[in-house]
Write a structure and sequence with these properties.
This protein has six helices and 13 strands. By secondary structure, it is an alpha+beta fold. The strands form three sheets. The chain has a six-stranded mixed β-sheet with strand order 4-5-8-7-9-12. The model has no long low-confidence stretch (mean pLDDT 96).
Length: 247
Amino acid sequence: MSLAVIDVAAGHGVTACFTTRAGGVSAGPWAGLNLGAATGDDLAKVRENRSRLCATVDVDPERVTIGHQVHGTDVRNIDAPSRPGRFTGALSGWPHGDGLVTDRSGIALVVLGADCLPVLLWRRDEARVAAVHAGWRGLVDGVLANVVAALGNPAQISAAIGPGVGPCCYPVDVGLRARFADRFGSATVQGGTVDLVTAAQIALAEAGVPQVTNVGACTSCNPDRFYSYRRDGARTGRHAGLIAIRP
């Protein structure tokens, strides 16, 4: 099966996409293009999957940066690749940061997820891009607003929300439903579930971002296309959002 990504039309000079699980070499519960190195998969297969992704989207694996994702709101400005070569080498040991921003060409920013939302942002008026890992904690605590502030000039920002768990498959307790309703309004609560995408859309609109697209895919509902922690538990893979300013 060939490697399949969901391309994002981010305009001239920017490469942006979300991955699916199609086209990788991992087997068992990680079958496909698992890009996560901390879920029990064979690390040699993770390296091969990451190399295949870089080749498919034409980015230099030596210049890929990830943050150690902690469901926080910190944003890192990337002036040079963090831990060059680690994306397909040592795989771990990244600095913390659920939000990554750069204005340097050739640096690819990557966030990983298996239900949390990957969100990609780019400026339309200048070369400046961002990638965000946005789970429920990050959304409630303001990670998207922090990234928009780091990018600057929100009226010139566009964003794309990638695959994540939908309200169809995300039951949560009453306390978390109340937090979402208080923070984002009743539209983000559907029965016993919460709607991460709608919350992200509201957060981006509040931050002044006028153009937001959504791929509209629930990770839990689509086992052939996506990994899902909620559906499969800890032994599952990770897919990615990737964005880069082309050299």
